[in-house]
Amino acid sequence: MKRNPYYQLRYFANVPYLVTFGQGHADFLHDLQLNDTGVFLWEHLEEVASPEQLAELCLAHFQCSQEQQATMESVVEDFVGGLLSRGILLADAREPSCPYGKRILEIAGLSCCVHAPANLFSPEMLAFEVADSNVTNTPVQNIYTVTESPSFTENGQVLVRTAQLTILENENKYMLFFPSFSKVREAHIRKDGSTASIYCAADVSEVDTGEFSYAVRMLFFYFALQHRVVALHSASILYNNRLWLFSAPSGTGKSTHTNLWKELFQTPIINGDINLITLQHGQPTVCGNPWHGTSGIFDTRDYPLGGVILLKQGSQNIVTNLTKDQKELFLLHRCITPTWTSALLDKNHDIIKKICPHIHVTTLTCTQNTSAVHCCKEAIDQCSMQK
Question: What is each CA distance from 362 to 175, 232, 297, 305, in whole angstroms?
């Protein structure tokens, strides 16, 4: 049993009260007057695992007779139940209440079980749906859709704060808040990534599919990172049976460049914005995923990775090879899997270090015309010949 950290035992004119402060005061939680028995129970709540054990402590402390045992057990049970109903005592962690059935999405060899009403699944997400029989022996994440506010407002250390996202960390989990969203309010995820909840508006028919998909993406990318999968902000094409990723800040020209490849050489565009990378049997592999930014282009299949090219705008076309440290740093900066803490940064970096020796990583300073594509193709062809 755990006490609400926003309550404190305090005496007013020698009368004991449980008084709320901080977040508890902001949540309009009520104070509670105690007697001597209540004070003892409050001070020893976290030393035991059950109301029965708490009653035993109380019997010994107040030197109660055996005849008084049943009465004391009833008093303790009522006291604990009252604290739970008021939010003064926190219930043990349990799966959130979610009335919706699950759909299993298999992405990058991982099973993401999303418990949500049918209207919240985008066509892209449903393209990765599988049956139960297909997901044995794979790591499983459960994401629950909850239409009630969390029973207790938890706080923690602020890790990230932007206009679009705030992330807090406490002992057991991360909490994500979406201030710019209208219907998806927040999401919680355990630190092992196995279980998460998305808190939505009560009327799920009004929840925006894009908001919901983004929240699922954030939670899944965290889970994927725990299983050695990184997400790279990049557009990808299939050339010579390998995927080539073009990465750059938004607005640099990824879409323009990949569309020119398709126009000139009929190379398929596999994903217009996000690519998941992992090692399969020691080889870098790009795994299909349903998230693609605004491009509308995605693929469900996996492909071997040939390399990653950083695009930079310029007045001429120049391919520049990178040193080993530059390659690692460049790829790390393009990761959009979580780097909320130094430990998560380490996980991203560790995967990048294992991938880099197997792929070609370079920069292409280029114009936005067809000559840039010919220059890039020549560099890729030379790299392929060397291998």
Answer: 37, 15, 24, 14
